């Protein structure tokens, strides 16, 4: 296990398997503090700025919850594009060179791919990518991984099915990249034609000798008894045309009945919020782990901040 | 006096007189802490999420002020319906099952009657109803009661006039229910025809043998020398038609001159903000207690959180 | 040096030179605390309410950062006019008489000149003017002054050029008033005809025997080798007509080339965000100090709160 020594975490692609192990291990150590069973305050005196160009209540509140639980403070801009008329037209560079004077770490959500890396290059403070357009969402992936690890006890030797719009979903991009770093991972991608995983990601899978298959048939993928099934919301905001969106919207919907066709208890993940691709009948299925994901999100976000601010010794 | 032993406070209707006494007593004990005269931090390490589907600066800031003053932390969603595009369409159940992983107690404002009770059933964490549509607003009522108790020294043996739209106002619903739990309370309802207190509330009053009268004449009610006069804002957002709203808007306006017709110093309450039903000439009237109500609101909200999180021993 | 003994800071015009020296000196003393190099918490137990009728992420986050760094807590209303439907129509008086029950100090941003002074007259708590329409923005000026003092080592005996819309910009109003309190200050105002510094400010300059000149030529002003050059954004929201705005928009743009024409290292200030009046080529110029201004803003806002809440002895 090895700590990330750069000052920021802008993408899963910059993290080694050893880095990921380090972060997940630290997340587990933070659990008693975050749950209030310990009085430790490893981030006391530290300040987080959540700076979100697009609103994302879930991710923002998760970061803020972690920082408060670890003893730090929070300043928040939850919807920079809409509620800040004055800022319209200010460059990302100027914004970051201002915000960095108010905090120790910035959780940045932006609508453009690459924004977090740019922000890191402008700033003397740590940046954590809280989603940059269609590109990456590394904290989502880290919480996905922590959930799988806690459910299965391992991240090597697993078979994962990804289902939905694999072309536009940054969560599946990031987790695909992450899984390619582990041993003997097998992937099955379920998606309609035209919504395939991007070629640059497939290139990495090929380079890392990750076995993967593509299909349009969700039930067939379930019948293959995977360890994990990751359902994705079709994100309308990522589509250029209504027509493209309609091609895929409602095409896949996981139900309890579909899962009952095999004996295996499959770990069901979803990046939430769900719309119509994950039926409520699944909620009581023993493998359903999507609300656990939100719980684990606080732990991994806390771990990232603790690591980047070099406060592991206070945990 | 008896503590509320359920994990949430969703309505006045679930509180006994003994519960109310307990909460008001605890509120008074918190006063030196909230005013910064004591270093106690009974809610240290605890996190409040204010989750408001409708904006309500007053109620939200009051909850947050109490939590901070008692040593805890706050994460906030001030306008979930408008500023969170992603969340649109997410069920209350999914939202609550997510948010509960970020905090210890949720102050929930929702536009639908019954939302707080539903949220309580979904969540393992404490819910405090911060207003659920036209239904209940229990923290408002508790602060009303604390204000009356501090002004009159009692909650039994009082005559209270309620004036305004008694059909649509949750604040008057809740205080009517609350007062029905005390001894020898007399109510006078001042409202135009068509805006009467709902029958289900009158049924409770009858069952509890509460004496009440209805009138359209505010001056006559004042001339009856009540102990308390509660003026209500006509809340346009509760009306289905502009026509109905216009029937009552501006019909009642309390002035200093109206109060001067009797010798008695009547305690004047209002749930604020006021529009045109409470003239500024009343502000210097000795009985005017509506800004005290906002002060007392911090105390009762702090008391509810302290009670539900079982931290009374740290007060 | 002399502390401000009134309970609020509503404008530079109420501050003496001795007051300003006191605040800037206190700001410097707070620096190690704000940077996390000291565990002191001079504002522990204190609560700031940032109440902004207009959004201003920069000023709001700066106040909040200072309060958190000094050990206090924050409650926030970032866009009262737009996100608070209920509050529409509530008077400033009622709002302030409510908010004051939730906090110890209010940072108030309002669209009307004089709002902060009015708020101070309504409230028993401290008010800090965070900008009142076209009138004053004293915390901006204090951070401007701190930046000049840190760069030049003095506030007396300086030549300052102000450039832009000197008619509508509150930041230049406030700093002009402030500089008039120091010794041997020379001002050069660069602006097109029709956008002159207001007469009431010129009257004060004349009364205080401040030497000033007016010109339309920015390069000529630079060639005069001033100590400081303050560039202003043309603020569209302050104009009554598009036509007036177009007369001045884009008229002035400071570039590195313009500064290279003289040998002197001029301190470049800007109230940020910039639009088109300050070219990015200036960012590496040694005198460029506009991001330092945002850093210094946290210090002076922390100093004001510490002073008004009488916690200097804990610094």
Task: Explain what this protein looks like in three dimensions.
The structure is a homotrimer of 315-residue chains. By secondary structure, the first copy, chain A, is an alpha/beta fold. Helices cover 39% and strands 15% of the residues of chain A. Chain A has two domains: 12-136 and 296-309, Aspartate/ornithine carbamoyltransferase (Rossmann fold, 3-Layer(aba) Sandwich), CATH 3.40.50.1370; 138-293, Aspartate/ornithine carbamoyltransferase (Rossmann fold, 3-Layer(aba) Sandwich). Chain A has helices at 17-34, 57-69, 80-83, 92-99, 115-122, 138-152, 170-179, 199-207, 218-223, 242-248, 256-260, 290-308; strands at 47-52, 73-77, 105-110, 126-132, 159-163, 186-190, 211-215, 228-231, 267-270. In chain A, the strands form two sheets. In chain A, strands 7-6-5-8-9 form a five-stranded parallel β-sheet. In chain A, α1 crosses α6, α1 packs across α12 and α4 crosses α5 (115-122). Chain A is globular. Chains in contact: A-B, A-C, B-C.
Q: How much helix, percentage-wise, in residues of chain A?
A: 25-40%
Kindly name the structural category of chain A.
Answer: alpha/beta
Number of helices of chain A: 12
Overall form of chain A: globular
Count of β-strands of chain A: 9
Question: What is CATH's topology name of the largest domain in chain A?
Answer: Rossmann fold
* Gyration radius over CA of chain A: 19 Å
Residue stretches of chain A low in confidence (pLDDT < 50, at least 5 long) are none
Indicate the CATH architecture of the largest domain in chain A. 3-Layer(aba) Sandwich
| SSE sequence of chain A, one letter per element | HEHEHHEHEHEHEHEHEHHEH
The CATH first-level class of the largest domain in chain A comes to: Alpha Beta
Q: Largest interface: which pair? A: A-B, 29 and 26 residues
User: What do the pLDDT scores of chain A average to?
Assistant: 93
Q: Assembly state here?
A: homotrimer
Strand content of chain A: 5-15%
Please give the domain count of chain A.
2
The CATH homologous superfamily of the largest domain in chain A is called Aspartate/ornithine carbamoyltransferase
Strand order of the largest sheet of chain A: 7-6-5-8-9
C-alpha termini separation of chain A: 17 Å
